[in-house]
Design a protein that fits this description.
Elements lengths: L19 E3 L8 H4 L1 E4 L6 E7 L6 E9 L4 E3 L1 H12 L6 E5 L5 E5 L5 H14 L5 H14 L3 H12 L6 H13 L5 H12 L2
Antiparallel strand pairs: 1-2, 2-5, 3-4, 3-6, 6-7
Helix pairs in contact: 3-4, 4-5, 5-6, 6-7
C-alpha cells in the first residue's frame, strides 16, 4: 500500500465520489481552480448550476443548458463571481449543480481570502523565476501545499506527469494527494504508482 505523502494540506475524505466531483466541501481552493467544474458524466441531458451567497441564498451566478455528457466546464463568469466573494470577505459561497430531482449535489466552496491569494501569487512569481518548467512546478506545488491548497498542488504534479508518466516520485506524490482529497483521478494514479513501483 502506498505511503501517504505527509504534506497534503487537505482534510481526509473517506466518502465515495458522488455526482459533483469538483469543487467539494472542505477542500480550500482559489477562484481559478474552483471555477473548473467537474461532475460525473451523464449519458445525456443538461445540467443547471447556481452559485449562492452563504447565509443569504442570494444568487451570484447561474447557468443552465450545460451539456451533461461533458463532465467538465470552466466558466469565466463563475470565476469572476467567486473572486468577488473572496474580495468581499465572504469566502464560502455554495454551489448547486442539478441534472434532475434525483441527480443533484451541492458544495460549499472554501476560498482562500483575497489578501492571502495576493501573497501566494507574489510568492509563486518570485520563487519560480528563471527555473526550468518541472522545477518551477515543484516549487509551485510546495507553495500550494503550504497554504492548504491540495487540488492546485495535485494539478502541478499531474502536469509534470504528462512529460514523465512513469516517474515513481511524482506518481507517489500525486496518488497520495489525490487519495487524501478524494480526487476523481485517484484510482488511475494509484494504479500507475503501483505499476511503477512494481507492486
Amino acid at each position: 500500500m502506498l505511503e501517504r505523502y505527509g504534506r497534503t494540506g487537505g482534510r481526509s475524505r473517506g466518502s465515495m465520489l458522488g455526482f459533483l466531483l469538483w469543487p467539494v466541501t472542505g477542500i480550500r481552493t482559489i477562484p481559478a481552480t474552483a471555477s473548473q467544474l467537474q461532475w460525473r458524466k451523464q449519458s445525456g441531458g443538461t445540467l443547471a448550476a447556481t452559485l449562492k451567497e452563504a447565509g443569504t441564498a442570494r444568487v451570484l451566478w447561474s447557468r443552465s443548458g450545460i451539456d451533461a455528457t461533458l463532465g467538465t466546464l470552466h466558466d469565466a463568469d463563475l470565476e469572476s463571481a467567486l473572486r468577488a466573494q473572496a474580495e468581499a470577505g465572504k469566502p464560502d459561497p455554495v454551489l448547486d449543480v442539478r441534472a434532475s430531482d434525483s441527480v443533484n449535489a451541492s458544495a460549499t466552496v472554501s476560498l482562500l481570502d483575497r489578501a492571502a491569494e495576493r501573497t501566494l501569487q507574489q510568492a509563486l512569481a518570485s520563487a519560480a523565476a528563471d527555473l526550468p518548467d518541472d522545477a518551477r512546478r515543484l516549487v509551485r506545488a510546495d507553495l500550494f501545499l503550504e497554504r492548504s491548497l491540495p487540488r492546485e498542488a495535485l494539478d502541478e504534479y499531474v502536469a509534470m506527469l504528462a512529460r514523465a508518466p512513469e516517474s515513481t516520485l511524482l506518481l507517489t506524490k500525486a496518488s497520495s494527494l489525490a487519495v487524501e482529497i478524494s480526487d476523481p483521478r485517484a484510482a488511475d494514479l494509484v494504479r500507475r504508482a503501483r505499476a511503477a513501483g512494481g507492486s
